[in-house]
């Protein structure tokens, strides 16, 4: 009996130590996925269609502002991004950065901070370099939510692994090559064109939003 208890105690101790030494790691992003996200900020809500396409080195955010504009944001791995509308305004701006899109393992090295209940899901939680808190479903290991250091929250409504957007949809409109306004920050440049790309925001360290 004593032996059994000792064994159990030892096992429990061992598993506790093991867990502390090996915290859960964030699941790398699939190389291609489509996700619908709901984001808030202090003054508005956004619905974002995110097409992450590491395979082809590109990332697409289609950003619907509540009862407002739809902003298209295409980012390539060579650092070029275009932000445009496709209504009669024909607005387009671009930015050239020296970093590409997020890598599938961009969360590697994040600090595990524990398990929390979020949006009704039991989640593992990590913090990455003071700019993002990331929540992943313990059961399915899908992302549930992430929160930027500004307090902006992205809630993951759908997560379709392997879903990709056809090549033709990645075409930038012609006026992007005629009257593109290069911007070096993500400031609101016209009242309509605003970059709120979730992906850029963290890794590219563009804080001037
Ligand atoms: C977004 O919503 C959450 C939850 O309601 C809130 O705590 C947070 O302050 C909001 N973010 C912003 C930037 O308003
Ligand atoms: C990056 O790639 C895109 C898409 O192929 C292209 O339109 C753009 O000109 C490239 N940018 C640079 C700086 O080469």
TrEMBL record:
Keywords: Signal. Residues 1-20 form the signal peptide. It comes from the Eukaryota. InterPro entries: At4g14100-like. This is Transferring glycosyl group transferase.
